[in-house]
From TrEMBL:
Record domain Metallo-beta-lactamase: where: 12-206
Domain of life of the native organism: Bacteria
Species the sequence originates in: Psychrobacter piscatorii
GO molecular function annotations of the record: hydrolase activity; metal ion binding; sulfur dioxygenase activity
Keywords: Hydrolase, Metal-binding
Coiled-coil spans in chain: none
GO biological process, one term: glutathione metabolic process
Protein name in UniProt: MBL fold metallo-hydrolase
Pfam families, sorted: Lactamase_B
Segments passing through the bilayer: none
Keyword Metal-binding among record annotations: yes
Signal peptide: none
């Protein structure tokens, strides 16, 4: 098993490539589409680096895995699929998130809330085969209702892609104030991850380091239990919920949440062009945040 991580510096998001090198198969986790909010222009510069990496090695892309419907970057899943093929994977509870945001954005009846935009919907404990690697879905709601972590195991090791549930120990944990989020639920989801063997490597979706260190795509279960500033072993559920809710009340909405959510719940698709040939996204007024 190999894992290669690529940082999109604008959103501080990691896209990971998980590979069975012997069988030349791979999966891509959380690919990023570049989006300039000032101009409304998109670019594939970030993900094209990842696509070229896969092509150079001659690997076949089997899965494009989204850990959840992101609020901080737009998914490049459609571009990846058009370039390399592969099946688009997300947790089955994405239907709940689709229904929540369909109301917020007042999408018309043509917007599907059955997750049929995706190819594979995973449930807790469901497995996917990637050559000699077994990928197991772990349902970890709290940040949103649909978050999944994905544990990958072969004969040599086990790693886990945690999405936005956990960050590096000095950064902490995901916010829970988006529609459908819940701090108590997040705490319990994190305990599932911390119950894994202590030497399990965790691959992060984001890293937001202070100036004193470089970005890093990984941590371990042991490091999280010992050092996570929000949820280490000495912090109980009540303390975590109090901290998380107080902290969330002070946070601004992510700068890309409005374009990101409406694109990502539709599997990375933009709305159909209008009669002038231009695609448009909606901006709900006074519907998010306070």
């Amino acid at each position: 098993m190999q894992v290669h991580s690529f940082l999109d510096r604008d959103t501080e998001t990691y896209t990971h490539v998980l590979a069975d090198v012997e069988q030349q198969l791979c999966a891509m986790i959380d690919p990023v589409l570049n989006f300039d909010a000032k101009s409304g222009r998109t670019s594939t510069s970030s993900v094209d680096e990842v696509i070229e990496f896969v092509r150079e090695r001659g690997w076949a892309l089997k899965y494009i895995i989204e850990t959840h419907a992101h609020a901080d970057h737009l998914s490049a899943a459609i571009h990846v699929k058009e370039s390399l093929g592969g099946q688009l994977v997300i947790g089955q509870h994405i239907t709940e998130v689709q229904k929540i945001f369909k109301q917020i954005f007042n999408f018309d009846t043509s917007f599907r809330t059955d997750a049929s935009q995706f190819d594979i919907l995973t449930d807790d404990g469901q497995t996917l085969a990637l050559g000699s690697i077994t990928i197991t879905a772990m349902y970890v709601p709290g940040h949103t209702r649909a978050d999944m972590a994905y544990m990958a195991s072969d004969n040599e090791k086990t790693v886990v892609f945690v999405g936005d549930t956990l960050f590096a120990p000095d950064v902490g944990t995901a916010r829970c104030d988006f529609p459908g989020g819940d701090a108590k639920t997040l705490y319990r989801s994190i305990q599932k991850l911390l119950a894994l063997p202590e030497d399990t490597v965790m691959y992060l979706c984001h890293d937001y380091p202070r100036e004193s260190r470089q970005h890093c795509p990984t941590t371990t279960v042991a490091a999280q239990k010992l050092e996570n500033i929000h949820v280490k072993d000495s912090i109980n559920e009540a303390e975590f919920v109090q901290m998380r809710e107080r902290r969330d009340a002070t946070l601004d909405m992510p700068r890309l949440i409005i374009p990101a959510v409406q694109v990502n719940i539709d599997a990375g698709n933009f709305p159909e062009p209008e009669d002038n040939g231009t695609r448009y996204l909606k901006v709900p007024i006074n519907a998010l945040g306070e």
